[in-house]
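**User:**
My hope is that you can spare some time for a protein that puzzles me. This is the protein in question:
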Amino acid sequence: MVKAAQVLALAITVVLVTSLASAQPTRRARRAGPNGPGVSDDAFDSSLQLVEDELIVKFKPGVSKENRGRALGKAKAEERNMLWASDAAGATGGDLVLVKLTDNKSKRVGMKAAAKDITQDPDVEYVEPNYIYTTSQTNDPRLGELWGMLAAGGGANATGAWASGFTSCNDVVVGVIDEGIQVTHPDLAAAMWTNLREVAGNRRDDDGNGNVDDVNGFDFVSRDGSVYDGGSLDTHGTHVAGTIGAVGNNGLGVSGVCQSGLKMISAKFIGRRGGSLADAVLALNYLLDLKTRYNLNMVATSNSWGGGGYAQSLFNAISAHNTAGILFVAAAGNDARNTDVSVSYPAGYNLPNIISVGSINSNGAISSFSNFGANTVDLFAPGGAILSTWPVNSYASISGTSMATPHVTGAVALYAAAHRQMRGSWPTAAQIKAAVMDTGVYDAAYDVSEVLRWSCSDLRLNASIASTRG
């Protein structure tokens, strides 16, 4: 085991929040949150981080640009960015637009009034704040080993899959919606997706997808194709990527659950000051377009972030991934709370393609920081003191449900590849999720009673899905 070059006081919690019913095991219904027209009284709550001069507006189908301007004019607002045009691949309904308030209504009371003014227009479907999502980290540093890959204790037993010959995730693609990734890291470079229709550095949108120079993904914070901004930036996204797909058996550092063959796309929407709801939606739509445009076998996205209130635009974007057969693996959150009582988004949305992941420590105990919930957390995975890749060309050990999530994403990718290897066909998203849930390791500690249950399944991840299920 190669030790980390630096021990950093980091342990990740995510502050953002984010159709497979036929094949998934029996479970309680998830809370979905508010839905429908109007502006929720809780949407502008002072506890929620948001961009204080922006709103997200969804128009009904067929509304012209002129009529969009008329509706926004009621609140002295103007269009800033088209988040999802009604004619885009996978789009449903009308245009989704980010708007800026121009009448000094940056305070929340004024924003709420503006939102209500716009909502009253008959051409508008809904209005919501542009929430801010961030990653935050606890002070529990320790130099870790890859216990999360082992069979002992609370490990996910990726070693069991490897020993059975399942090491490659060949032809499988996953999206990492997070900070950026150090794409040149020696343990990650071979696992990064490359857009062969894009010419690096020519400042042109060669493939016509609306994003210039998106060679390994796209940075929706800076609006450019450089998903790694250098130095000690993009630590969180780089760490997540390493757990999913750091190259194995290369004599370097660590190994991800997928040791080879996997391709990861960086959809960066979180920067130094967090990430906005608008950029999260853009990141999701970008990956959906890539899957459709290039016929990619994109089985999942990894989402180690959370926060904000219920957002219909984010719900719709994740739902579109569900329709396309893409799983949304999400961090349950690091607030040590019952999310059945106080929902954490996006993990808490009532969508069948979501796998909500809590964290356990090396002894199998639920991490002290991890959220839990019989209706809103699907299972637990290694998240305490996880060693993984780190900028620049380094390794570090940190903790959080952010670290548990990529273990599940990697297991999803590994099972998809193994299924094709054994059966000659790709599994559906529903089949993958059912396999993850059905083969988990039961722990009575997660099933205290029918009154207090820790998760939907009372299970922890078994990454050796293929060798136990086939």
User: Anything to note?
Assistant: Residues 71 and 121 are 6 Å apart (CA to CA).
